[in-house]
Amino acid sequence: MITARAAATFDPVGRSVASARAFVRDTLQGWGFTDVVDDAVVLTSELVTNAVVHAGTAADVACMRTDTGVRVEVGDRYPEREVPLQSAGVQFGSPDREGGRGLLLCAALASRWGVEYTATNKQVWFQLDLPDRPAGTRSAGPALPVGALPVTDARVRVAVIQIDSLGGISSWNEDAQDLFGFSPEQVTGKQLTDFAAWPHTPGTSTGIVEALQLSRWEGSYGIRGADGRVIPVYASHLRVRDADGDPSTVCLLVRDHERAVLQTPSRAPASDRHTASERGSATDAFEVFIGSPAPDDLDGLLQRTVERARDMLDGDSAYLLLATDDETELEVRASTGLPSSRQRFARVPVEAGSGRYGSARMPAVHEDLSAVPGAVPLLSNTGMRSVVTVPLKVEGRLTGSLGVAAEAPGRYSNEEALRLQFAADRIALAVESARLTELERLRRGSLSFLVEASDLLAGTLDRDQTLALMAQMTVPTLATWCAVYTIADPASEPELSYVLHEDEDRIDGLKALLAKVDPPEPVTTPGAQVWTAPAHAAHAAALRTSLRSLGLGDSVRPATGPGTALATASAVGGETVVLPLVARNRVIGMLTLGKPTDEHFRQEILELAEDLSRRAALALDNARLYSERTAISQSLQRSLLPPELPDVPGVEVEVIYRAAGEGNEVGGDFYDLFPIRDGAYGFAIGDVCGTGPEAAAVTGLARHALRLLAREGFGGPAVLERLNAAILDEGARSRFLTLLYGELWPQEDGSATLKIVCAGHPLPLRLRQTGDVEAAAEPQPLLGVMDDLELYEQTVSLAPGDVLLCVTDGVTERREGTRMLGDDGLVDVLTTCTGLTAGAVATRVLRAVERFAAQPASDDMAILAMRVPELPLEPQTT
């Protein structure tokens, strides 16, 4: 029979395993099942690990209290996973294996366990039965002198009140009547809540209704008497079943100053209970407090510490803070009984500033925090009234602080402070050792992270890719979400350039939210600056959306549902920091990192993010400079390319051009085709010695000079001789130039006449309709070498179906090892092009060049193909 139930869902991330352990531990301890807590936590840890790490889905954890024990169910959303079955022929395997260990532990520790499947998930459950306790003494206090015994009234009155399943009073004894002034007839059937004055802080502590549902509860509250006064009482509740099997609660109450009558005796320090001689052997005081085996990781050790400290002083909560490296602040690292997700990694000053942590270097007892608000900032608005804190010191140096708190005032005295300080002294050295080990591990991990980040950022000069890398390196390693703002120039406003969230479904909502928020102010001050605008805007948007959904706001419905707005608010509701991106003494942007609701950044993470931001800023600025220079270069190069080629009547013309080098559109090779006058066209294909900007400059000179001289009426030899003189006039900037220049006249009979000058250039090839290939010109001296050139032109006639192919040496000198395509290889390729159009001929030559070698071409390449189409057949007459 299930008497209580608690359930939670954990996201598919590694930290959920620790959260699930804490959930199960707190739940079972609240039910009083301390005998089975450790086994339940171990089994839950393994099963949740299987769900969130191996299955990669969210984990649903449910704890159910029964009459004989507790049942825990862990479900995942991956029903297809196979579960090993234990039989004579199949074994679970070694406990050291990564997989299957959770089920092996279930078989070893649980009273019963099993696996259940549905269409959408898989559920593993286990049952832990409470051990049978034989009759006898469970706990006993030491013998005390008469003077040390607690003081009571002349007659101790113990009110016995029984509450039915609905919370109504069903029994009220004589002592209850004497204490509170009501007769049984006046209270029977009424709710206990009508008389109880419960010191409850909304949202943080247990109410009386919840307390009556617990299997056992012990604590202080008040009862309003018949005279209207509130009488402080100390109560012990026990949940039982009556003769009919219905649940009810028996409440034993005494005056609060007589609490010793009912209060469970506190556990005395280990040194008071036994001496080493009585135990027969020495016992490590550290293990007495922490237990054996001790956790081998810092988080586990700190969590065990706060749980044992809370139990030792019978507190409602406990927490542990560690000092930062400069010992000016304390950082929350573990807590129990407090909203840990909100408090983890929160920081408070030690001795200076607003919200300081008072008396951190000395033991301190606060009997009532309401009288000294702000003395312990961590406990603000948590319902805790009394607290004892002690420092953790190693060799006189403050390393942390340990505190235990209770909801009732006046719970602690100097005696409890001494007991807690004794435990803190035992644990301080182990905590500091584990902290230094973790710090060293984090520093090694940070160094590896920065080395990898530097390699990735240095591997690209693309601005958009750099922005994406910056965000992807921070999410989720450093933050839950990231936004990058860029600043084009000092006079420009920051622009939101990239947004990333670890949950892709949240990116659009986050981007829309940040677009409505004024960007952070660009500052050159190094370090992370807190930015509260996103969290405020998210919460305001969520509130407006919720009001609209309830019909309390504007009549216009929001584009997204309340769930979406609330999810976005939760995603960005935590701490948000901004780090400036400074490169070359100028702020070029901001890197914004954020956490979900109530989460804070660790100082080590912020320092790592600052290092990353410096590298990212330089990489982003390098990408900007490269993009600007590439844009300028490509704009200039495009200006050197000829405009769109003219249509030549009766002649097919096709040009293919490839410039070597990344980002180059123009190199040392060039081509041109332009009208000279009616019926005459000039064409050229050339190769300047070298590649890059210098060669491109000579390319521009040659192309523009050819057009100008040809249109002035000069013939081919005269045009090239004057171009040769212009190149030589460049002096040291001049380059050798091979050039094939010609004039083309389409004829009325369907043929074409060409006059060609080949100045040191690979010879043009003519493909006849019969498939024969021959050189169409003779070689002559190249340009840019000698002052006096004697050049001549040759006349070539292209019949219908003939092709003239002109290429640069990037085609003929294509190499693969010691092999080269050469003139003969080009002839072989052209021989196969009979009957093809000019475009098909150029494409086939290019494909042959590309396939000749596996490596990309290292030289510029130009291909110019001209073909005279075949004449259409005349229709036959009969």
If you had to describe this structure to a student in words, what would you say it looks like?
A hairpin with a 2-residue loop joins strand 21 and strand 22. The chain is elongated and about 140 Å long. The longest helix is centred in the middle third of the chain and has 45 residues. About 6% of the residues have low confidence. It starts with a strand and ends in an 11-residue tail after the last strand. It is built from 22 helices and 34 strands. It is α+β, with helices and mostly antiparallel strands. The strands form seven sheets. It has a six-stranded antiparallel beta sheet. It has a six-stranded antiparallel beta sheet with strand order 14-13-12-17-16-15. 33% of the residues lie in helices and 25% in strands. Helix 1 packs antiparallel against helix 2, helix 12 runs parallel beside helix 17 and helix 13 runs antiparallel to helix 17.
